[in-house]
Amino acid sequence: MLPRCNRPRIAFGLTFHPLQSDHEDGSMTATATKPIRILLQTTILYDEDDWNINRFSLLRSALAGLRTADGQPAAEVTARDREPDAAGNDPVLAGIDTSDYDQLWLIGVDTGGEGGLNQAECAAITRFRERGGAIFSTRDHQDLGASLCKLGGVGRAHFFHSRQPDPDPDRNRRDDPDNPAIDYPNYHSGSNGDVQRVAATDPIHPVLERNGTRVGTLPAHPHEGGVGTPPGDPTARVVVTGTSQATNRPFNIAVAFEPANGHGRGWAESTFHHFCDYNWDIGAGAPSFVSEPPSDAIRKNPSLLDDTKKYVANLVAWLGRRPR
Question: Is residue 25 part of a domain?
Answer without folding.
Answer: no
